[in-house]
C-alpha cells in the first residue's frame, strides 16, 4: 500500500465586516508525498530490463530469510481473516479456517508454493522455498490438486474448490485470486535471478513446464493482473511482510503498471 502524507500550509484571508480589520488564518494544504518513493527511488522512471534489474536489487537487499517452520506463524498473521482474527483466509477457495488447523491432514491448511517448488528445484530451502511473498495458506486437498501445474485459463471445474478449473497441465484459480497469483509470480521472477545459489526463475508463455525453472502462462498472467487489481487484503499483506518478516516488498502490488513496463 503506498502511503501518502499530507503536509504544508495555506494562509487564508478572512473577510471582515465593515469597520473591522481583516483576519488571517492558516490551514493545512495537501502536499502529496509517497512514502514508497524512497524505497523504489532507484527504479522510478525506468522501463524494460533496466527497471527489472533495479527492482531485483531493491527487493533482494537487506532481506530477512525465514525458516520453513517460521512460515507457519507468518502466514497466521499475513493471511489473517479481517472478519475473524482466529482464522486465516485460504487461497483458491476464499474459505476462512481456524489458524490452528495447520498441518497435513484432510481438513487442515498447509503452505502452498504459488511458484511450484519443482519449477526451480528449491524445495523448502530458506530463500525461494520460504519466501512468504508467494506462500499462501491453502486447503490440503486443494493444494494437492493444483500440484505443480502452470497457470492458464480452462479445464474442468474443481469440485472441492468452486470457481477453479484444471486440466492435465494447468490450473485456473477463481477470479478473486487471479491477480494475486499473477503478482506473486511476477515478484518471484524478479527476486530470484540465479545469483544466490538458486535457479534463475523466469516466466514464459507455456504450460507443462515440469521441472524447468519456468512458470507460465505469461500472457494469461498479464491478463489476470489487469482484470483483478490489488485488493486491500493484498496490500495489507505486502505491508506486513515488509514490516514484520522479510523487510522487502512486492513491487507489482505497489506499482501495478510495472508488469506491463517489463513484460508488456
TrEMBL record:
InterPro entries xrefs: Endonuclease-I, His-Me_finger_sf
Q: Signal peptide: which range, if any?
A: 1-21
Q: Does the keyword Glycoprotein apply?
A: no
GO molecular function per UniProt: endonuclease activity
Q: What keyword terms does UniProt attach to this protein?
A: Endonuclease, Hydrolase, Nuclease, Signal
Q: Which Pfam families match?
A: Endonuclease_1
**Protein name per the record:** Endonuclease
**Organism of origin:** Streptomyces millisiae
